[in-house]
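Justification of resources, computational component.

The compute hours requested in this renewal are based largely on the per-chain cost of generating structure records like the one below. Each record pairs the submitted sequence with a full structure-token output. That output is archived, and it is also reused by downstream analysis tasks.
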Amino acid sequence: MERTLNRVSAFAATHAAVAACDPLQARALVLQLPALNRDKDVPGIVGLLREFLPVRGVPSSWGFVEAAAAMRDIGFFLGSLKRHGLEPVDLVPGLERVLLDLARVTDLPPRETLLHVTVWNPAAADAQRSYTGLPDEAHLLESVRISMAALEAAIALTVELSDVSLRSPAFAQGCDELEAYLQKMVESIVYAYRFISPQVFYDELRPFYEPIRVGGQSYLGPGAVEMPLFVLEHVLWGSQSDDPAYREFKETYLPYVLPAYRAVYARFATEPALIDRALDEARAAGTQGEHVRAGLTAPERVFKVLLRFRAPHLKLAERAYEAGRSGPTTGSGGYAPSMLGDLLTLTCAARSRIRAALDES
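The structure output for this chain reads:
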């Protein structure tokens, strides 16, 4: 248990460092943004952004933390201007160069991502940045904070387990720890169900998450689909999948996750997923013996937790887009909710492979 807490705390500490950083001294200015958005005051939004935009360029002394925090504060203005039908870089001289410089320092896209608006955003009421100031938006941010550090710890553990023998007691123990981490994903979706109105999400929040253009390219707005769960599943069961829509889905969101996870993705693109390797080992052992059966049963429990997240997530997305039937039919990440259904189907299929092996043992 102590090791689990330490692992999660290490990831949470990195997020806290960015959240506490205010290199542009922009807190008081960004907090005025929701009122300007309510009034559709585009000149006011542009004027406020110009007050703290580093027109002389990004300081050479800035590292990742400062650049990520600066992108967070500028980013809320990007989504706001696009919500009012405008391309931010066309409207604010010097903005594009700043965004490209910040992207270079962080090795992330030149706009705000899910990380910037959630775990890198202070949670305190007198500091939390927001597009709207609505309680539903605050709850949306909190739903991601509930699970992000645990998910990151889960990715690190899944990579470790890829080198552990199915027959080792450490494999089953690691899967139990992984199951505990992923339970936070379930908690996050339960929280979202309780506190976020699908109608408010669709009508009031989603318009702030539209793509913008920077440097001649289009970049997606923040969305829950940018959570690195797809990286974990790539390592766990999906690296060798030949489903073209699934591969396209993963590669669409790869630029929006941290560089370390892009490296993990690349490594396993040429290696068997954890489940493939475990099933091969079970077959080689004749799927006999207590340790083999324990090794297969442990990841089956991990899939059970994954499905307890995936199925409600699909239903929640369907509720939101049913509420907004007359508007856009794709999510803020660019995919229709049906893609979540496809992911659910693929996850079920991977779990079925383990169950079949258990039936044979």
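The CA atoms of residues 139 and 195 lie 6 Å apart. The chain has a mean pLDDT of 93.
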